[in-house]
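Cross-check.
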Amino acid sequence: MSADEPLLKLVGVTKQFQTAAGPPLTVLAGIDFELASGAAVAVVGPSGSGKSTLLNLVGALDKPTSGQVFLEGRDLAACSQDELAEIRNRRIGFVFQFHHLLPQCTVWENVLIPTLATSNEVLRDGAPERARRLLARVGLSERLTHRPSQLSGGERQRVAVVRALINEPRILLADEPTGSLDRASAEQLGQLLVDVNVEMGVSLLVVTHSMELANRMHRRFELRDGKLREIAK
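Predicted model, tokenized:
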């Protein structure tokens, strides 16, 4: 990846789904998009417009019907399943509307789970210190032995953010990260995402219904009728 190459690039990306009868349903229609390293972008749009589908393609969880998705200059469609697994584990962090923490595991254990799959020994060996630092950064140093059921909704989402950052990804994908939170917790999490972008240089691609969260990002786009259009601030 050269210095002037975008971290993420979509070229003519279309995604269709087969229907029980009739023509395929086109959710994304020829999308071109670039995300620079260190940028923070929000995507808004009505329910069912394809926002989560877009994140799934960027996150190497699905493939486009046509077009190409490049991450750090690599065409994800040309990668093997093992390569895609490594990219998902090492280069991309995921935060969802619901935290998806393992209920039987402590905060500490949940945060360290992604490190078990990495082949990078240096990254894995440094994980405990990173976990302590990140959990302190989000105000959860006193919650290491707590299980998810013992945490508030906002605390669970903060744990999910730390878990997404533990392998030092280049990009953080957040799908409605404040959607299940009360207003105060949503504001706190939104500020945390901004701080992560500024302090750690992690690129952000955030899908949200919240214009308050979207307005915190550098750029805003609307996904509607399969097209992605930038919204002027």
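The two ends are 30 Å apart (CA to CA). Residues 39-62+81-231 form a domain with the Rossmann fold fold (CATH 3.40.50.300). Passed to J.P. for a second look.
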